[in-house]
Amino acid sequence: MKIAIGNDHAGTRYKFNIIDHLKSTGIEVINFGTDDENSMDYPDTIHPVAEAVESGKADLGIIICGSGNGAAMTANHHKKIRAALCWNKELAALARQHNNANILSIPARFVSLEDSLEFVDTFLNTEFEGGRHQKRIDKIPTDKC
41-95 pLDDT, tens per residue? Predict the structure, then answer.
């Protein structure tokens, strides 16, 4: 599995911990995020994550900013992207099960580092249920972006 990851200055510490965690399980990571905590514009690191997932260069994505909102909004402007802002394990599971989310957005200023690792594991290990949920996803237009 290959994961694209991107972050702004608020998510740098989280990103490094998530990368270490993913690599320890044999997952390949493409790092598009900033590596320091100097203020920067999150779209500069989020667009490349969405493009990697959209093109198939990455299987899934993880994006991290202070609230998680700006990152998710940016990613969701890409066709074929369903970025989900998750602040607990249950939302991470439902984002995959019901919405077939392909990017996890983490709000670094509102969740603990330990919890964020749990969200990542849940997101990556939960399968899309399909069925009635696929019908709903099919109604999300990809030609409007």
Answer: 999 999 999 999 999 999 999 999 999 999 999 999 999 999 999 999 999 999 9
Q: Is 102 part of a structural domain of the chain?
A: yes
Structure tokens at 107: 């709000």
- The domain total for the chain is 1
pLDDT band at 131, cuts 50/70/90? confident
Catalytic residues: 65, 98
Across the beta sheet with 2-7, what order do the strands follow?
28-31, 2-7, 60-65, 103-107, 83-85
Higher pLDDT, 36 or 130: 36
Contact 65, 103 (CB under 8 A): no
Answer whether residue 7 is part of any domain: yes
The enclosing domain of 19 has a CATH number of: 3.40.1400.10
Give the integer Cα–Cα distance in Å for 98 and 124.
14
SS3 140: coil
What CA–CA distance (Å, rounded) separates 137 from 133? 6
Question: Tokens for 73?
Answer: 């909004």
Residue recorded with tokens 């069925």: 131
